[in-house]
Fold these 4 entries.
Entry 1:
Amino acid sequence: DKAPLSKSLLLVPSAISILLTLLFQHYQKFFAYNLQAIKEDFQIWRLVCGRTICLDLKDTFCSSLLIYNFRIFERRYGSRKFSSFLLGAWMLSALFDLLLVEIAQYIFGITINSLPSGFLGPVFALFVPFYSSIPRVQVTQVLGHFSITNKTLVYILGLQLLTSGSYIWILALSGLVS
């Protein structure tokens, strides 16, 4: 309720991702986040398509659950402020993606031609206000030593998303920095 942007970010990219995975596999190449094509062939449209739709269903599921949990910020800030935050985080994380890839190539000699696709940069950027502004409420304890809070599931989903791909740490770091 009262979170139309979160609902549309939950439904539209998820539906497109499922359709691309199940029915239209031959169109997946248009949604690949191919950095080589962006830098060498100046295919800027790949930056938009590759950073919007997830091609992996596990990433789609985890990011959808995280967007559902982060809808509290749209209710708190309003749709206009929330959308401007997401747009700013999306653009800054795209810039940081390119910078981190260049830094990884310069320092470690790792050549990265493509990154995982999806709306992952802004999703990871939402962890910063989640950590700082949502209070921690203990729900229960496991084995008497480990406390389970209202934030535990969100952090587990973020960790699952972080470990789902080989270079997704670049997207996570750029989202957190943005």
Entry 2:
Amino acid sequence: MIILFRFEKLFGGKFLGDIVRRVLLDLAQNGLLFDGKITDELKTVESITATDLSDIETNKSDDIFESLAKRLGYESFTSDDRNTISYVCAVVSIRGALMLAAILSNLIARIDRQEVTIAIDGSVYKYHPKFHTLITDFIRELLPTDCHKKF
């Protein structure tokens, strides 16, 4: 059970936002984001949520970025900051979906049945605008060709 919990930390809704926060903190510490300025809010665990990540992936309007920047203690952000945050959210989303797809495609390949149905629940899967598509595309890519008819 401990192994599954640790694995869930790599893609679960409770943790995705904090993975984004940690990447953004590292970028800021290296002077690649927010002109190297680091706020207490950016250092605070869970100050970025999976909802923030989903909002950014859904709507790339300045309002979304402005709201996040203010919550993180920044008065303003540059277009480079905006593009960087957007890119980090996309990469973390892709990474999470790929990790799930790797496990699911392995399970599908091992199940000795003509068809397989997968039931998935959770806030990331329900509310992230791209997660379903990413997971299904990655599963098709990772499945051996002879297993495609199962999925």
Entry 3:
Amino acid sequence: MARSRAAYEYTEAEDKSMRLGFLLIAAGLLSLLGLGCCWLRPALQERGGGGSANCTVLAVRQLGERFACTFSCGAACRGTARYPCLQVLVRTSRSSAPALLHEDERQLRSNPKCSYIPPCARDDQENSENVTYKQKYWKEKVGSQPFTCYFNQHLRPDDVMLKRTHDETVLLHCFLWPVVTFLVGVLIVVLTICAKSLAVRAEAIKKKKH
């Protein structure tokens, strides 16, 4: 019995391999739990009840209200500037009611009242020019041409997005890499155990021959 136990004792290299395998298994599981609770679950909720539609611009306007944004001019240099609020009202192929267009879900959460948030510049005039350029783009270049937009009837029935922040590729990668990490860890542990078992059997066969 003592000889059998000694035969199955792992060497230092095998012990390190087992530890690495268990570490990867734990990392994969924790990553899945963390992403599921903090990111994947809200992303799926945002996508639930949503879909794509064809949008047509109804009106493009600037409101008199201005909003604050934070600009950075260096490592320890930050300040506040303001930009005008641009609203792009569209009609979707799913509903005749007008909806407010947003760049994506992040922009919608940052400022649900406006359709566009310019890159925050130190000069308010530069921010205004960026918004005016975007206004001309929607009026002159897009005009009445239909384009694809995205909506979520359950969460934001009166808003549509130009693009999705959480598309299928991002969701796939968030699920894929933790699973790959977990499987690699399992594979390392299984191969180490199998290699040790084969080595012990080979040693036993060798002793029997002698």
Entry 4:
Amino acid sequence: MARSRAAYEYTEAEDKSMRLGFLLIAAGLLSLLGLGCCWLRPALQERGGGGSTNCTVLAVRQLGERFACTFSCGAACRGTARYPCLQVLVRTSRSSAPALLHEDERQLRTNPKCSYIPPCARDDQENSENVTHKQKYWKEKVGSQPFTCYFNQHLRPDDVMLKRTHDETVLLHCFLWPVVTFLVGVLIVVLTICAKSLAIRAEAIKKKKHL
């Protein structure tokens, strides 16, 4: 009787394997839950009301208004500088009304009045030069050439983005790796149980042969 009970008990290696499997299952589920609540759901909501369209530059201009940005020059060194506001007005294939172009959703939230936020430098003149360089790019290099842009009705229907913050690759990896972790955990648990079951059957067959 004691030998039969011992046959059904997991060895130390099998016990560790089962614990690892359950740990991976729990990690996968918690990762999916955390990413879904904190990151994936807002990202899908952003993309839900959006799509792509063709844009053509109508006007590129600098406004007289300047905006503040924060620069960092070391661990304990921070300060405030200012940059001019660049606006790139475009026409989209979905509407005849002009729209304001933005780099991405983050830039739109940070400064909805402007099309470009330069890397914040300590010197205001350097910030102005960066904005002027971007202005020349849109005027001379892009000009009247059509390009792909993106819109999102949930944010601001009269604005378009040059690129998306959350693209398909990021969303895929956000969903893929927690699922892979969960499936690997399930596979480890199933293989361990199957291996134990086969070992018990082999032991039972061996005993019958000796009887």
